[in-house]
């Protein structure tokens, strides 16, 4: 079965291909089918993921899965949230992982003390059999940690170098991919999604 991934993010594709392996599906990036990115006008992860999945289904005629993920920082009232990918642009930097990390560390300079730098990486996956599917499958994963003072580690992507996970005493960027995938927000949501698909679609 072919499943369209409603994302052009190579990091997401690599992670999800690994995590969806138990399904035996062929995960295809929407860009490889000449599908443009969908508008994401909503303020919640679930609404944006649903919009992206519906868009990919409509234009491909295939089932689709979309991930809307982001960083929710307690000190910022849960922001940047759905604006995570464009976080750096709010502060005059170009869009990109490195600039996002730089902007976040600059904004958190004055945030000190136990528990004050707490944050969660959140991944919301939505899967649809068709654009009109009345019963979308929805899975949510959360990885809670603390934002470090500086980037540490060279694995992963996004905010992995500054997301310190107390249970491991390391950032996500210091963990081997298989360990990260077992505990990350996307790992959690993908495992839930695989179980939902096995139960309802296969």
From TrEMBL:
Query: Could you tell me the superkingdom of the organism this chain comes from?
Result: Bacteria
Question: Which terms does the UniProt entry file under GO BP?
Answer: nucleotide metabolic process; purine nucleoside triphosphate catabolic process
Q: Does the keyword Nucleotide-binding apply?
A: yes
Positions contributing to Mg(2+) binding: 68
Question: What's a Pfam family in this record?
Answer: Ham1p_like
Q: Which HAMAP family match?
A: Non_canon_purine_NTPase
Q: How does it assemble?
A: Homodimer.
Identify this protein by name. dITP/XTP pyrophosphatase
Origin species, per record, is: Hylemonella gracilis ATCC 19624
Organism lineage? Bacteria, Pseudomonadati, Pseudomonadota, Betaproteobacteria, Burkholderiales
